[in-house]
Structure formats: C-alpha cells, structure tokens
Amino acid sequence: MNDSADRVVPARPGPVRDDWDDDRPLPDLPPLPADPRWRVEHLPFLTAFSVALMICAASVGFFAGGVPAAVGAAAGVGIVTVSFTMSTLVFAWADTVRPALLMPLGLGTYIVKYTLLGVIMAFVISSEWPGRLALGWGIVAGVLGWTAVQIWWVARTSLAK
C-alpha cells in the first residue's frame, strides 16, 4: 500500500523567508530625466570626432600606401562609426519604448553587428585589395578613438552634475 501521508518531504536548505510581501520602502533611485534626448546627446560630438579621425586615418593611409590605403583606413573608421551609432540608437529607442527590451534588442544588435563585421573582414582578407591592412588599422583606430571619447564624455558629464 502506498500512502502519501507516510512520506517525509525533506526541508529546503537555508532559512525560511516569510518576508516576501514586506512593506519596506524601495531604495531612493535618481529619477530619469524627463527629456529622452540625454540618451543620444553625445552622438553629434562623437560623430564630429569620427569624421576628424576618418580624415586623419585617410591622410595617414594615403602617405603610407596611396589611395587604396587611404580608402581602407577611412572605411575602417566609418564601419566602427556606423556600428557604434547603430547600437546607441537601438539602445536609446528600446529604453524609451520599454526598458525590458534592452537585453534582447541589445544582444540582437550585437549579433547582427559582429556577423556583418565578420563577413566584411572575411571578404576583405580573402581579397587581394591593397587597402585591406589599412582597413584593419582603421577599425582599430575607430574602436579605440570612439571608446576613449565616449569614456571622456561620460566622465565629463558625470563630474558636471
């Protein structure tokens, strides 16, 4: 005979918590600005920086390897600029529409970006285009430059408050 009343159910390890519905107040968090433009207010400055970096990269590429290297270096910075701008716009949009969308849309954006970057790099590496090395260095310069300026921007705006 199988009587379920005779079974012993082991207790869960750890303390029992009965305070899930407590009335403690939530911590005070700073309110988000009413104006959603704060999410993208850095884009004009970063875009101007990227254009200046693109001109510098093209100049260095031209003097190092001629027109193909100039085009490659400028294209590398341009790829990074488009990639980072796309991420910023997707994150800003998702945050204004529904913050719960940030994670799935952010991951989806990164999957799309890195897939496209991989396809571009695979195509360029397999080609005999003389500007391919400059393209790689342009991508490196764009990532380092954009990241450094974005860190500077955040630090500047955080200290101003």
From TrEMBL:
The chain crosses the membrane at residues 43-64, 70-94, 101-125, 137-155. Residues 15-26 have a biased composition (Basic and acidic residues). Keywords: Membrane, Transmembrane, Transmembrane helix. It comes from Actinoplanes nipponensis. Residues 1-28 are annotated as: Disordered. This is ATP synthase protein I.
